[in-house]
Amino acid sequence: MRPSALPTAMLLVGTLAKSSSITCADGLYMVVARGTGEKDGSGVTGSLAEDIADRIENSIVEPLDYPAAFSDPNYMRSERDGVETMQNLITSYHKACPDGKIAVFGYSQGGQVASDAFCGSGGIIGFSQRAALPISLVEDSVVAIIVFGDPSHVAEAPYNRGTSQKNGVFPRQNITLCEDNYTGIMRSYCDTGDTFCDLGDDGEVHRLYISNYGDDIANFVVDKYDDMMRKTTATASGTASASASASATDDSDNAAAGLAPGLALATIAPFALTILGLLL
Ligand SMILES: *[C@@H]1O[C@H](CO)[C@@H](O)[C@H](O)[C@H]1NC(C)=O
Ligand SMILES: *[C@@H]1O[C@H](CO)[C@@H](O)[C@H](O)[C@H]1NC(C)=O
């Protein structure tokens, strides 16, 4: 059983220990955040990342180590752990490997994790609020941000792909940063009927993104990587920009000003959680 509240100190030690053993990829460093309930590793998105690794020599696929849980710990806490871990991982990687190129993939809960890490928590009710990764770090190092079936999907985002015209279960309230700054590198896939990103009722849709869009995505990521490599070799690199401590601030607890997480969970999004619960 996983304790529902992992002490911050433990998390910190884990993160520091990891950052000292970072291996810089000569190719692309791919961070993959799996969906709720997928077992440890990179989940269904792993095959896509491996396909890309076959096309970009010396790439590394790095599964994000986070709970991806629904109830133990609860979804909101699990998701928050994911965002924190992803931001720390990317910040540490960029620090250790300043010329390194990164792509991020997130499926389902992992999609919300990736969206929060780059767009900021966006005021999604019931979730803790966390600042986005610094834009300068992303511009220096991130070639693509790909999410599938993201519960925080919003219908009007310019980086959307797929047929959905609806919001997801936990629609993001503020997409300004990603809309303004990452539309060129970000893609959020959501098809009509997806229970999580489209509030639909077709359980199959959520599972089909890689088979429907995988080839397009692989081409997109490889193109973006090539573009950035051309840019990087054309300009002198090496401006030390992002500092780890400046990357993100955590308000350390729940968004809903002062509500205990359990209470917030019970009161804020009962409808959405009921839907998720029925589906799992
Ligand atoms: C939305 O996010 C942007 C960029 O982070 C910020 O400047 C803006 O104030 C936010 N808008 C609201 C209504 O919170
Ligand atoms: C992000 O996008 C906004 C709107 O286009 C722009 O004003 C801002 O300078 C961008 N931020 C960075 C750091 O490029």
UniProtKB/TrEMBL annotation:
* Key words of the record: Disulfide bond, Hydrolase, Membrane, Signal, Transmembrane, Transmembrane helix
- What's one GO MF term for it? carboxylic ester hydrolase activity
Q: Does the keyword Disulfide bond apply?
A: yes
Q: Which residues cross the membrane?
A: 259-279
Signal peptide coordinates: 1-21
Keyword hit for Hydrolase: yes
Task: State the protein's name.
Answer: Cutinase
Q: Which organism is it from?
A: Cylindrodendrum hubeiense
